[in-house]
Design brief:
Blueprint: H1 2-14, E1 20-24, E2 27-30, H2 31-57, H3 60-71, H4 81-111, H5 121-152, H6 171-192
Antiparallel strand pairs: 1-2
Helix pairs in contact: 1-2, 3-4, 4-5
Length: 197
């Protein structure tokens, strides 16, 4: 929640243009700033919801296999498809874990007297700094544990790996790809005609 609020405030304060709603010294809140701030806020919320939903309903093996299958045409260009798919899957799986870890650290800091509910933006930003060190240490510890677990299972990337189930495209997959391509084309056309959304 704090990241969303912080992103919105930064966009509102540093994006200029359009009708001015509020001005105090160098601080200026404009119509364009509010539009961009709201747009970025909605974008981040949808990204978090989508990533969380994807990792909650899909097993890591399925996710890795699907990503590898999508990236497999790039193998001819020397791109390590399996390794990239594995990295993306691990990153997606760690998002909910890191959010949970952040919540635990914040509660521990609040028990020690840290003020995350302050109305003062500067004091709230200062109280966020002590969160970073334990969060990074926790992330590195988890990464080290994961690396040791993969090593102990003799993981060597995609070489010599076989699949129990082969992934095949179905009709609904082609429909989803078609809808995404149409959305992409419409988005590019809107950008070219300078349409603001």
């Amino acid at each position: 929640i704090y990241l969303l609020i912080f992103t919105f405030i930064l966009n509102v304060l540093f994006t200029q243009g359009g009708k001015i709603y509020f001005e105090f010294g160098i601080i200026r809140i404009t119509q364009e700033g509010l539009h961009i701030g709201a747009f970025m806020l909605i974008r981040l919320v949808l990204l978090i919801i989508g990533a969380s939903l994807l990792t909650l309903v899909t097993r890591p093996i399925q996710l890795t296999d699907a990503l590898e299958s999508m990236l497999s045409p790039f193998k001819k260009l020397g791109l390590p498809a399996h390794e990239l798919a594995m990295m993306m899957t691990i990153a997606l799986r760690f998002i909910p874990t890191l959010l949970d870890e952040t919540d635990k650290i914040m509660k521990a800091q609040m028990a020690r007297g840290a003020d995350f509910e302050s109305n003062n933006l500067i004091s709230r930003a200062k109280s966020m700094i002590p969160l970073l060190v334990p969060l990074f240490i926790s992330a590195f510890r988890r990464a080290d544990e994961l690396a040791m677990a993969m090593e102990s299972r003799c993981y060597h990337g995609g070489e010599g790996r076989t699949r129990l189930k082969q992934i095949r495209y179905e009709n609904k997959d082609y429909v989803a790809i078609f809808i995404l391509i149409i959305y992409l084309v419409i988005t590019i056309i809107m950008r070219f005609i300078n349409f603001r959304y």
